[in-house]
Design a protein that fits this description.
262 residues, alpha+beta, three-stranded antiparallel beta sheet, 9 helices, 38% helix
Length: 262
């Protein structure tokens, strides 16, 4: 299927003769593929001499232009809702956040799909740690820029959507593991991605106790200030610090990160 926004309004401008020859089979095929109005597909075929591939490219280019214009128009609207997503694969783990205007859009399948594509795209990065939002939008998924996917989703859903800084860590050793925690988990996993409104990731070396890892991830979510993490009393048991827990179970915290939709 194409990435064309089926709700794209007709573009005013060049008018064509009603008698202009258009291949009806090609017209019907493109209508089925894109969901766009017949008059818009007819315009594309007239612009490209009935070449279906060129017509589809013409439609996609015009759709991208329109989506970018819509994104610019909505860009100043407040984004108080959204989702944090954590995606774990064999060789990497990523955490991403997208903001939107309303809770209903945050639950929309197209919004969640964009979140999942963003998390997948991070596997292209070779470094560990925080990736700035603009650097993420410059990545590609299925030969499409994430920035174009973002504007297409804005065009489809009609809300301002923003990407925040993301996080990725490559699991390049069998001794390295991760634990994550999502606060206000909104749904079950989708395509292997856990969702919530506040999330954390902790990266460990030589940790063999999953419950301990989860406890530390929960602590990070509950503690907005994660500076000097090892010195902090564990939220679930303030008689022990995070550092003491590491010593007791003989493991190290290599890295950690917390993000929220706010």
């Amino acid at each position: 299927s194409s990435g064309i926004n089926a709700e794209w309004p007709l573009r005013p401008g060049r008018m064509f003769s009603a008698n202009a020859a258009v291949n009806k089979k090609v017209l019907q095929k493109l209508r089925s593929e894109t969901g766009l109005p017949f008059i818009k597909i007819k315009e594309a075929l007239q612009e490209t001499d009935n070449n279906p591939d060129k017509a589809l490219k013409w439609l996609e280019e015009k759709s991208i232009e329109q989506n970018w214009a819509k994104a610019q128009k909505l860009s100043q609207r407040a984004t108080s809702q959204g989702l944090v997503g954590v995606l774990k694969k064999k060789d990497f783990v990523s955490m991403v956040t997208l903001q939107c205007e309303t809770e209903s859009v945050a639950k929309n399948e197209h919004f969640i799909s964009l979140l999942h594509h963003s998390a997948l795209a991070l596997q292209q990065r070779q470094e560990n740690g925080v990736i700035k939002a603009q650097a993420v939008l410059d990545l590609t998924v299925d030969n499409q820029l994430l920035s174009d996917l973002l504007t297409a989703t804005i065009g489809r859903l009609g809300e301002n959507i923003k990407a925040k800084d993301c996080y990725v860590y490559r699991l390049d050793s069998p001794n390295v593991s991760t634990s994550s925690y999502l606060h206000r988990r909104t749904t079950s996993e989708i395509n292997g991605m856990s969702l919530g409104t506040i999330g954390s990731l902790a990266v460990f070396e030589n940790l063999n106790n999953e419950a301990v890892g989860t406890a530390i991830a929960q602590h990070i979510v509950g503690t907005e200030n994660c500076d000097n993490l090892l010195e902090q009393p564990l939220l679930q048991d303030e008689s022990v610090t995070v550092g003491q827990l590491c010593e007791e179970h003989n493991f190290r915290i290599l890295d950690h990160y917390r993000m929220s939709i706010q």
